[in-house]
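Please discuss these two lines.
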Amino acid sequence: MSSASATIMEELAEALTYCHDKKVIHRDIKPENLLLGLMGEVKTADFGWSVHALSLRRQTTCGTLDYLSPEIVEGRTYDKKVNVWCIRVLCYELLVGKPPFERTSQSDTQRRILKVDVTFSPSMPVGAQDLVSKLLRYQPSEPVSLAQILEHPWVKAHS
């Protein structure tokens, strides 16, 4: 599963870099919105929540609860980094089998997102834990960028 997850991270980071260069924020990256091509390549789908934003600054609350960034949960202005947050959550879910903040109630899930309350399964590879721990940070200025995801040793070794 590590190699498939690393490949998805790499291809999704490349796709979102392209979107960001075109001033597009997807805002709803999750497994259901990814398609696999004939050769296993990742294709981003469902741009229903996406926005073409020249300033790349938004305040609309949208997306899927388990994948919402702290900025969206708090109703703050956000930018393209919400897509990077979604990749973080996706990476965790691909490796563990469920989103990191998932709870039965919406308020509990939101509370865990705001605390960035993440626990790692012992089965998660150490390199993947390193990437996810660097990705899941409260402050939007702290997380790893899309380019850094592409250069992360775990992604490079397993993609």
Notes: The longest helix spans residues 2-21. Residues 3-146 form a domain with the Transferase(Phosphotransferase); domain 1 fold (CATH 1.10.510.10). The radius of gyration is 15 Å. The chain has one domain: 3-146.
